């Protein structure tokens, strides 16, 4: 959405000052001072992220998922294949790349389902979710600091993983429920 259109929002917060706090490999953090609609000021801590992709990939009526340890949560997670966008990379290309790197499967075609913000209260990350069900097996090519296993699970197993907390991240929850809707109705 354009900056001009956002400025027309009745609760628009104009940035008065922005201070860079941290710049890392994946995220950066800034602290903004903003002018509130009532004339007061407030501080906003903002995490900047390049964006990411995720793929709900179905092969033989099973969803491809990866199991990996997530340090911020301190536990293993079952998730759909996903990863961050490289500078200048188009989301569809990133989705195809991440699917192959993490699962070894190549998608002959891919369909965009939805783009969504992960935590709009403090972060600008957008995840672009894709669906693929026309796949061919290739080779897994993990990043050097990436450790995971890939498996194909049924819809019933996915729902059980949600119940048990093995699946609890937003992108995978959305992917599973989209797959469920597609299975039940034939559409998304």
From TrEMBL:
Gene Ontology CC: cytosol
Gene3D superfamilies, per the entry: Nucleoside Triphosphate Pyrophosphohydrolase (3.90.79.10)
Keywords: Hydrolase
Cofactor annotation: Mg(2+)
Single annotated GO MF: pyrophosphatase activity
Biological process annotations from GO: nucleoside phosphate metabolic process; ribose phosphate metabolic process
The organism's place on the tree of life at top rank: Bacteria
Keyword Transport: no
Domain Nudix hydrolase: 47-175
Similarity remark: Belongs to the Nudix hydrolase family.
PANTHER family in the record: NUDIX HYDROLASE DOMAIN-CONTAINING PROTEIN, UDP/ADP-SUGAR PYROPHOSPHATASE
Name this protein carries in UniProt: NUDIX hydrolase
């Amino acid at each position: 959405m354009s900056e001009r259109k956002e400025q027309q929002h009745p609760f628009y917060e104009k940035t008065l000052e922005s201070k860079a706090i941290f710049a890392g490999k994946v995220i950066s953090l800034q602290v903004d001072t903003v002018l509130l609609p009532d004339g007061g000021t407030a501080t906003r801590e903002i995490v900047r992220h390049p964006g990411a992709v995720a793929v709900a990939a179905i092969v033989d009526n099973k969803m491809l998922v990866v199991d990996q340890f997530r340090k911020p949560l301190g536990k293993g997670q079952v998730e759909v294949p996903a990863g961050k966008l490289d500078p200048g990379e188009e989301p569809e290309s990133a989705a195809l790349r991440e699917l192959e790197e993490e699962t070894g499967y190549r998608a002959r075609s891919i369909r965009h389902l939805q783009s969504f913000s992960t935590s709009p209260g403090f972060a600008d990350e957008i995840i672009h979710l894709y669906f693929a069900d026309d796949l061919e097996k290739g080779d897994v090519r993990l990043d050097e600091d990436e450790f995971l296993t890939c498996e194909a699970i049924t819809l019933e197993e996915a729902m059980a993983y949600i119940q048990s907390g093995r699946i609890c991240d937003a992108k995978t929850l959305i992917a599973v429920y989209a797959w469920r809707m597609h299975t039940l109705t034939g559409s998304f």
